[in-house]
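TICKET: design request
STATUS: open
ATTACHED STRUCTURE:
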């Protein structure tokens, strides 16, 4: 299993969720975060939106089986991309296990 964390523009949320739903992924976590990339929030900041170089972003977390990783990455990259700086980034890391609390199911069965 892998944990896919995508930092995206808040305006891309609907397209990303719709894209994931369309191919049948159900579990997702969305968090409000602040961050900056290589431009340090400077060139992206306008209309007084940035605080000390940090811009509002959303973190989308999806845990999937290894076979689904590339598909999910493609969906997120396609639906979150505008081509402008600040489109975001996708990080992939290993997940040791998952447990569905209600049933006690473990591993991919719990996703
Ligand atoms: N190396 C990193 N580690 C952790 N978070 C990061 C990293 N790079 C980017 N982020 C997060 O992703 C958000 C979007 O990054 P961003 O798309 O601006 O990356 P970038 O490398 O500057 O690319 P671009 O040149 O396309 O803007 C940042 O606001 C930050 O929250
Ligand atoms: Mg940037």
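STATUS: resolved
RESOLUTION: sequence designed for all positions
ATTACHED SEQUENCE:
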């Amino acid at each position: 299993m892998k944990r896919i964390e995508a930092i995206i523009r808040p305006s891309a949320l609907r397209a990303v969720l719709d894209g994931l739903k369309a191919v049948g992924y159900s579990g997702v976590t969305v968090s409000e975060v602040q961050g900056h990339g290589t431009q340090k929030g400077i060139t992206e900041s306008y209309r007084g939106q940035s605080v000390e170089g940090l811009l509002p972003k959303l973190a989308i977390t999806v845990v999937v089986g290894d076979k689904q990783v590339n598909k999910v990455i493609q969906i997120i990259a396609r639906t979150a991309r505008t081509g402008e700086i600040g489109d975001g980034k996708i990080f992939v890391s290993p997940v040791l296990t998952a447990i569905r609390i209600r049933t006690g199911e473990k591993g991919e069965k719990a996703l």
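CLOSING REMARK: The CA atoms of residues 28 and 62 lie 5 Å apart. The beta strands are 2-8, 29-35, 55-64, 88-94.
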